[in-house]
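Quick one before lunch.
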Amino acid sequence: MFGLKTDWSLDVLPRYFTLEDYDGGEARWCPGCGDHAVLAAVQRICRDEQLPPEKTVCVSGIGCSSRFPHYMKTYGFHGLHGRALPVACGVKARRPDLTVWVATGDGDCCSIGAGHWIHAIRYNMDMVVMLFDNNIYGLTKAQTSPTTPPGMKTNTHPRGAWLPPLNPTASTVGFTNSSFVAQTVDWNPVHLHATLVAAYRHKGLSFVRIMQRCPQYTANIFEEFQQDPAKIQLLMHENGIQVDPAVAGMYSNQFTHDPSDMPEALRLANQEDVIPIGLFYHAPENPRYELATVQGLDMTVDEKLKKLNAEIDRFAI
Ligand code: SF4
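Model of the iron/sulfur cluster complex:
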């Protein structure tokens, strides 16, 4: 054809996602709330790993942190109180190709959602579960949560909470088929980011408890740990969370811990005078339930019916 060369080719650039591609708008958490740091870390990981937004799902229950899916420009499901994990398991069971992030709080996960928590750990489907632990029900304005420390005055315990608090990290290490349990703090963005990267890369359910500041209702709760880095115990190991030596050097209290050692993980998690951060427990070979639930997903309806009838025929008299 006149004027048209036939030997040209068009280079179509692969899609490149920037941080804006994951930014769902202005987060409306209180100024200084630790949730902002977690959101920034997850958006950065999505960008660095080039996760297609249409293949990424954020699931949450109810609570301040559960507004997380609204601030991510991905698919999202803001569910019912305590029900983030069954929704996330349902997503993963039928769409194993999606990356699933779960945002849940100490009230959402460890109280009303505790039954789902135990079984989601046992199912060990490939997802990252972020427990935002601020020791209080923030959204409903300061009621005692399962992790509220004894003596803290709340609207439900005006003279101070008095039951021993639940320890989500130790509990999760002890649940059947637990495969990745880590702990970090919102005020160290490097460690937070490194922990969530390791969680994302683990194949199975990664449970990350994040000590999260709530300046509105538990303003002083982590202050001593922020002021005195010696009260943070940095767990180190070649199979653990790898952080920049400059950041590791901030912590004089370092402890070598092999994350395959469950009894030691439990002992470390139950310490009360320090906050240990790092990888407590890792069992990468544990079975994953979605490897069973995906069977047959590629079959047509006719193929399924044929197989089903063949199965039923085996029992026909
Ligand atoms: Fe964050 Fe607490 Fe405000 Fe909720 S009440 S948004 S947890 S600072």
